[in-house]
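Sanity check

After download, print the first record. It should look like this:
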Amino acid sequence: MYKTSKLALAIAGALTLPASYANAADTGERLEEVNVTVSPLDKPADAVAAPVSVLSGDKLRDDATATLGQTLQNQPGVANASFGGGVGLPVIRGQSANRVKILNDNLDVADASSTSSDHAATVEPLLAKRIEILRGPATLRYGSGAIGGVVNVIDGRIPTEVPEDLEGALEMRHNSGNSQDAGVFRLSGGAGQLAWYLDGVYRENDNTEIPGLAIRHHEEEHHEEEHAGEEHEHEEEFNTDGYVGNTNARAHSGSGGVSWITDSGFIGLSVNRLENNYGIPLGAHQHHHEEEEHEDGDALAEEEHDHEEPEAVRIDMVQTRYDLKGEHRFDSDYWNKLSFRLGYNDYEHVELEPHDGHYHEGTRFTNEAWEGRAELTHDDGGEWRGAYGVQLSEKDFAAIGEEAFVQPTTTSSIGAFTMKERQWNDWHLDLGGRLERVEVDPQTGAQQDYNLVGASASLQYFLAEHQHISLGLTSAERAPVAEELFADGAHVAEARYLTGDSNLDKENSVNLELGYHHHNDDANGWHAARVEASVFYNRVGDYIYAQNSGLEDPESEFPVYAYMNRDATFYGAEASVQFPLTYGLHLTLFGDTVRAQFDDRIDGLSRDVPRMPPLRVGFALGGDYDQWNWEWRTTEAADQERAGAYEEPTDGYTRMDLTARYNVELGNTDAVVFASARNLLDEEIRNSTSLLRDYAPEMGRSVEAGVRFVF
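Expected structure tokens:
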């Protein structure tokens, strides 16, 4: 049941605090205005027509966790598609995987996270300097994989300027909820025109602690309802109490970069190595056909197999990435700069399966990929300024082993785009267009080719210098990916049998967005309130998704999911308002919602698109003072009863978090002692966006504390 009464009382209590319209300077630290890289035209986030969120500084350090999805789950319109403690992928307005592009400094991460929900993204939030979230289609600049949004992780591996002195940071933290120990360091320096950079992270954790049982057995619940009052023999099933089994993990990563800096630009190279070993939660990864080993239908052997602990399967991931980045600024009245990026990624992971007390290699996933992009910007000093760009990429993806559910495939693409903007009086106009060709070439079967077209237009009207409304319209297309076209097999980690369709049509999306924005940190009292609100309507023709057929594969005993095209409509809203109060306090009210339905009905099946995030509302009360800062945040999530065909609903929850940090100066070193108490009410939280919601709830009550040194 949606517990609005508790939230209403909490907000009412917060509003009774004295509010004597304090000057904005009294509300503490001010967000640094930086130009976001999701725009090639060097614009601050406040000036971008599309809804952009930037997570940086101490706020990023407070929210950063081992996974990207969990790090961003408090951002407007962003949810977490968790798969145990080792995996968490961002969901933007109900879109994820191949519709949300995860970038590492404006280039695709090129891992296997979009292929399957059990594959972790290879970016490290603990090493990020800034994370930019662009909600809504960003296909013009980043291609068809960004039809739902972009998450751009900026880590600074390639320096763009020479530091005056040696700079660095060291951080150590511990989390009680899974006994995680993590350490991070960053170091940069240079001399003359040469700049260099080093970083590293190490983290290790035990199983995730939770309130109650890990595995939720719907069949058992339904059975009890149907036979209420009857005596029947209860069959005991495997479960864990108080923790999610096999969620321990260990990861370490290291990077090095070097750049040559000139007065007109720079060129730099970086190398990163990541190793990550994490477990798939017990019960999610099971073999259902081991009884075949028992001849003559040995019932006793089958019964013992039914009650034994599921396999503790692990993912062993290794990645080496090389990046080249450069920029040249022109001494011209028209051309501004030429920037280019080139990245190569060698990725693989192996599913390790236990046998006779030892782990043996199972299915191996590899992805050898490269991507390059170049952008040229101009400004005529008068009416128009803009950018021209080209993007090329190729990836060779393969799954090798008995449980490979998709054949090896090579995907290549080439795209060209232009973006233009003009401002007159109080109006600002943005226009853009993109042409792209995508080729998907399987090892067996015919090559699939797609020609994609995208266009966008947005109009902003500035009511005042720091206040504007915007209206945007985007038309974008997405090509099907390898697993959607050619999947045919049991994906054991997800406990699904997947079937692709090589005749799938490309998606076409028309997105309409209306937004309001007000930021004025120099104002007094309530005029210093920070307001962001947007409503969107997204019509997706030939939406591609895996439909739960309600059938079961006889060999694997997994439910059969078939990829298909089906028209769908997404609509929703996001809003946040931060008010300055007296005594250095500030209050933030926030909420977001998304609703998604298919336009037609199939044999009486539910029209609801599966795994949508629930309605969320909440408030955050914080205080900013000379040396210390704190924030108390409460989020109320509604029940998600629109689960989709053959899917189970999830209950709502009240999540309460408290963060605090204390700043100390130690000579030339700044020290920050920080602590976060998460899920203070010890709620059972099962993410409706997660395939693993019935096996692995989120962490229960936990405290994370640490210290950070910056010099």
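If your output differs, re-run the checksum step. Summary of this record's structure: The CA atoms of residues 73 and 79 lie 5 Å apart.
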